[in-house]
Amino acid sequence: MKKILHKSTTRGFANHGWLKSNHTFSFANYQNLERMNFGMLRVLNDDVVQPNMGFGTHPHRNMEIISIPISGALSHKDNMNNQRAIEVGEVQVMSAGTGLTHSEFNHSKTDAVNFLQLWIIPQAENVTPHYNQKMFDKAGRKNKFQVLVSPVDKLVEGSLPMHQQGYISMIDLDPEFETEYQLKNGAYFFLIDGEVSIADQILEKRDAIGIIETEKVVITAKTKSKLLIIDVPIN
């Protein structure tokens, strides 16, 4: 087993006023040659968008883009005629493929939006762009792994498709609950909230650990916790 620990305080940080963003991997003005990616996981941004602010229309190409709101709601609009809000409990997947444009905006007058944005390198380039969004039942992740995103050619029932042999899952853990996660590739564990032990390493809120070269890891919750698992090919 090989492990790489990323404490929350070691992430890159950008404060644009309307946007505060923590970058797990190199992104924009944060460039760290030792933090370029974890296998096919290229970007993991922890963004807070202030009220009545947002990202203007901008392009993407040949990337699988996953957005997961933590608090608040983020309005989405793209050139494929999709226009709706992404709310807590929902997951959005955009396969950019040959190219798309979109914008994201916080229409609340009072509340900031916190969401995670993941970029995953696709296994095939220049696919037809497409968009999916779904609300997931929180009961489906209480002390069990709820698969949110899976490969388009091996789609797990109830999950959203992406063009990569990866699996994105979430689990809500009760205090002292212990479970095992079976790795399919390499797995990157990002603790959204709480405190857990993963492979004998303690993680606190927004800490992360990447693990490769093992079949399974033991996860024990120290407190009530929410954990995101990004299981992706390493090469």
Characterize the structure shown.
Keywords: Iron, Metal-binding. Belongs to the pirin family. This is Pirin family protein. One of its GO terms (molecular function) is metal ion binding. The chain is an all-beta fold. It has a single domain, classed as Jelly Rolls, CATH 2.60.120. It has no helices and 22 strands. The mean pLDDT is 96.
Largest beta sheet: what is the strand line-up? 1-20-17-22-15-13-14
Q: What is the alpha-carbon Rg in Å?
A: 17 Å
Uncertain spans:
none
Shape-level CATH architecture: Sandwich
CATH class: Mainly Beta
C-alpha termini separation = 17 Å
Number of domains: 1
Could you give a short account of the major beta sheet? 7 strands, mixed
Which homologous superfamily in CATH is the superfamily? Jelly Rolls
List the helices and strands and how they pair.
Blueprint (H helix, E strand, L loop, with lengths): L1 E5 L5 E4 L3 E5 L17 E9 L3 E8 L3 E8 L1 E6 L4 E5 L2 E6 L4 E7 L6 E8 L9 E6 L10 E6 L8 E3 L4 E7 L4 E5 L3 E8 L1 E4 L2 E4 L3 E5 L3 E6 L3 E8 L3
Parallel strand pairs: 13-14
Antiparallel strand pairs: 1-20, 2-3, 3-4, 4-11, 5-10, 6-9, 6-11, 7-8, 7-10, 9-12, 13-15, 15-22, 16-21, 17-20, 17-22, 18-19, 18-21
